Amino acid sequence: MSEPILQLKQVQKTFADTNVLNGIDLSIAQGEFITLLGASGCGKTTTLRIIAGLEQPDSGRVLLGGNDVTDLPPEKRNVNTVFQNYALFPHMTVSENIAYGLKLKKKSKAEIRQTVQEMLSLVQLEGYQDRRPSELSGGQKQRLAIARALAVKPQILLLDEPLGALDLQLRRQMQFELKRLQKQLGITFIYITHDQEEALNMSDRIAVMRQGRFEQIGTPNEVYDSPKTDYVARFVGEANILRGTVCKVGDPLLLQTDAGICAVACSGCGLKQGDTACIAVRSEQVQFSPYREGEQGLRATITEKNFAGGMLRILLTFADGQTVVASRHGIDLPAQVGEEMLVHWQPEHAILVQQSEEADR
Known about the structure:
This protein has eight helices and 20 strands. With 361 residues, the protein is of the alpha+beta class. The strands form four sheets. Strands 6-7-8-3-9-10 form a six-stranded mixed sheet, sandwiched between helices. It has a five-stranded antiparallel sheet with strand order 13-12-11-14-20. A hairpin with a 2-residue loop joins strand 1 (6-15) and strand 2 (18-28).
């Protein structure tokens, strides 16, 4: 395997009495699109600022292309940043914005002119070179900010929630544009978002952050289909979490929960009878049918139905008050609120996960 383009080694950062980063490690390959995904305050922006040189870690090292850049200022690192507010120069034209970094690097007029034309073509802003940022749409401003950042040919492009100010339809369109640009150029992108859909659509790998640590790092498929913790299962996609005690070992094993007994695939999981366990079941894997005495399943009542994001969400409540969510395509189904159902799923769709602290649930 080639030398990683970027490595974070035991990076720690504290503000006042708050540990923002708790000794994180990360290795990123050349040409990779990696997303730091997490809720507000998890440490992802601080991580990006440390990579950029805008913050200094309290301890740990930052290596760029194998070289220790921990103590170098931002201008000495071959990285560039695109911010959510774009940070464009309002008094400059599109061309002047793109050329700004090249002038600072004292490039020749001919090289600047050629690079500006290349960037205009790359981000599809030909014909807009003489306009000012105030004359551009949100999507055009975003593309201009990317063109300006890419013009100086950084080893790594850092993107801090760059699509956050765009409406939903344009944001989805720009997700594809960003991925196209990244693959076309082969530049490493480190992307920050709290939007799981963006992370799943765009990334080669996702690093899920929680309380200044990486909860899980993996491909979108790994993070979605095989979450390691209940926090990751809940944060990426929609998952139902049930906790219980193993009442019968085997494959599948049987788990006694407050809502009843359910089956869980357990090939080599190592659990023994009496062990406590935690499972995650994706909402799209939850099945239900009208309640009939003697049939297998968890008895529940439909307490809510709502349609959002192209999916129908059905809330089912057990006798102990715990709920699970099932999702379906379509805007409604015959079963009505108040009807009793039997809830079940295939054993392989119940994923054994590590249990997070109660405070994070």
